[in-house]
Amino acid sequence: MLEKMIIGRYVPGTSFVHRLDPRSKLLFIFFFIFTVFLANDLLSYSLLLAFTFFAVWLTQIPFRFLFNGLKIVFYLILFTFLMHVAFTKGGEVLFSIGRFHIYEEGLKQGFFISIRFFTLIFMTTLLTLTTSPISVTDGVERLLNPLNALKFPVHELALMMSIALRFIPTLMDETDKIVKAQVARGSDLNTGTLKERFQAVVPLLIPLFINSFKRATDLAVAMEVRGYRGGEGRTRYRQLAWQGRDTLVLLVLFAFSGVLLYLRMKG
Amino acid sequence: MAIVQGERVNFSYDEEGPRVLHDVSFTIDRGKWIAIVGHNGSGKSTLAKLMIGLYLPTEGSLKMFGEDYTEQNVWNIRERIGVVFQNPDNQFVGTTVQDDVAFSLENRGVPYEEMRERVMEVLRQVSMEQFLDAEPHHLSGGQKQRVAIAGAIALHPELLILDEATSMLDPQGREDVMRTVTELKETTDVTVISITHDLEEVLLADEVLVMNEGKLLFQTTPEEMFRHGKKLEEIGLDLPFTLRLANLLEREEINVAHELTEEKLVEQLWTLYFNK
User: Fold this and answer.
1) Nearest-neighbour CA in chain A from B107: distance (Å)
2) In chain B, what residues touch A229 (CB-CB under 8 Å)?
3) pLDDT of A69 strictly over 70
4) Is B104's CB within 8 Å of A215's CB?
5) Which of A176, A235, A236 to mutate: most B Cβ within 10 Å?
6) Neighbour-count burial of B70, counting CB atoms closer than 10 A to its CB (0-12 exposed, 13-18 middle, 19+ buried)
7) Contact B101, B82 (CB under 8 A)
8) Angle between the A104-130 and A42-59 helix axes, to the nearest 10 degrees?
9) What pLDDT does A4 receive?
10) Which residue has the higher pLDDT, A265 or B262?
11) In chain B, which residues have their Cβ closer than 8 Å to the Cβ of A215?
């Protein structure tokens, strides 16, 4: 099940959404979160769903792929739905089982909250599916740039993020090697009580930690020798280009929020 | 003109700790390819660290381009040196090949347009231009080291230091890296210092510094060095295949001249057979 998890994964592509600037996508998600909370009735929630599906269609990522990848999340949504159905009171009683009543309001709230949850998860997943982690880092760095004035170490933070991303596969490979080495020495990782299994992990973690420190030292030396002296006076190789389509996407979102706001005021 | 000049260089990592380098004096001339060989713990890697300015000599002086390292000039001197380290993974800073090559350029504030050109230029020099967007875990060790070379030469350094750059590679990767350096040496006037314990690599060099237990044993040409075959084996260095074979043949009373290349040895052997 975990292999199918797609939260945080990146699927390379050339769709409209893929080609957007990471900054516009990050801003889009940020404002979308507020937009979701504007919806309050059947019409506005339907619009919200339609909007989300339209975004999915734009990414050209097969809906089934997305759906299968988010299965775990659907259990969570289902759980939330049932909680609302069971415990929210108000409106007419739809039907009762013994002393247990299901109210109209509970069902409605359950549906709405589930849609809210669903659209939020879908949209944020679309962000990571269509944007490489390093682009996300670039986007975050640029968006946080004004914080530099407050002495917030934006560049260092972004560099840490990119190095962490760079080393994830390396450390995965290493973990794999250590597991094999320990298994070859008779370590048993898959059976035994929870405590025993936990203890079997320790001989994996220790070499991994020691090697990571060694890597960190090597990397620091390599960076220093290649002239790294912090963010000051550095130029950037990775360029971001804000284009018409980025502005367009944000305008569409604002227009959509306006519609939802109008519906809310009217209703 | 001397590019590196060591005069009675002494070094220990701790004040009370053992001496890692004892009175090492040598001169490395511009435009040469110098190999520094020695067994583990012979002090050859420490010497490299001093040349990069990561440490300063405890006693004596080590002049790079005629200057001793000081706090003020360390960044200027380093700008003229490119270094490739041992572990291909631990020196790959960028998330893709081109980002990694650009890292040293970014650090020096090179403008974007110039960076693009330089990255392409150096990647072409190491024949890695078709891997622009490849991520490090999809590359072999040899490819990663070639990217590291590209990163090191992106600033057109006068001196390229290879600190055991091939010791973690498979034979194919090693050959590719050495071929890249050889081509680089032919097309530019860069000085190369390769630190290694592989005596076959030494054959490519103009001069060799043999280190043992923190002392400089001798500085000479590769051909001359291999005349001291016994001595080299005593200090724990593996002789190249051709020399080992010649030594073994000698024991069987088949005398061949001690040649360094396989072709020459083969030639000797078959003529020997026909002359019988």
Assistant:
1) 5
2) 75, 107
3) yes
4) no
5) A235
6) exposed
7) no
8) 20
9) 62
10) A265
11) 87, 89-90
Q: What is the mean pLDDT of chain B?
A: 89
pLDDT tens track for B223-239: 888 878 778 888 888 77
Q: What angle do CA A132, A138, A143 make, to 5 degrees?
A: 125
**Mutation test of the interface with chain B: which of A132, A136, A166, A171, choosing the one with the most B Cβ atoms within 10 A?**
A166
Start-to-end CA distance of chain B, whole Å, equals: 51
Tokens matching residue A88: 């929210």
Encoded tokens for A213 = 């420190």
Q: How many Cβ atoms from other residues are within 10 Å of residue B177's Cβ?
A: 26
Q: Give residue B146's pLDDT.
A: 95
Q: Are strands B215-220 and B207-212 parallel, antiparallel or unpaired?
A: antiparallel
Q: How far apart are the first and last CA of chain A?
A: 43
B-chain residue closest to A165, CA distance:
B95
Amino acid at B106: E
From chain A, the residues in CB contact with B72 under 8 A are none
Residue of B95, B99, B111 with shortest CB distance to A235: B111
Per the CB < 8 Å rule, is B115 touching A227? no
Task: Say if the Cβ atoms of A237 and B112 lie within 8 Å.
Answer: yes
H helices of B59-107, in order, are 74-79, 97-107
In this predicted structure, what is the pLDDT of residue A19? 93
List, in order, residues 6 or more apart from B149 with CB less than 8 Å away: B82, B84, B126, B160, B165, B177, B180, B181, B184
Looking at the predicted complex, does its ipTM rise above 0.95? no
Name the nearest CA neighbour of A231 among A150, A153, A131, A168: A153
> Above 60 in pLDDT, residue A173?
yes
**More reliable by pLDDT, A188 or B50:** B50
Does residue A1 register a pLDDT over 70?
A: no
Distance between CA atoms of residues B241 and B255, nearest Å: 16
CA distance to partner chain A, nearest, from residue B12 (Å): 19
pLDDT digits (tens, 9 = 90+) for A247-267: 999 999 999 999 999 999 987
Read off the pLDDT of residues B75-90 as tens digits, 9 standing for 90 and up: 999 999 999 999 999 9
Are the Cβ atoms of B136 and A166 closer than 8 angstroms?
A: yes
Q: Which of B119, B137, B155 sits opposite A170 (nearest CB)?
A: B137
- CB-based contact, A14 to chain B, within 8 Å: no
B221 residue type, one letter = T
- Dig out the tokens for A241 from the structure: 């280009």
| Nearest by CB: B79 against A170, A215, A227 | A227
> Which pLDDT value is given to residue A210?
94
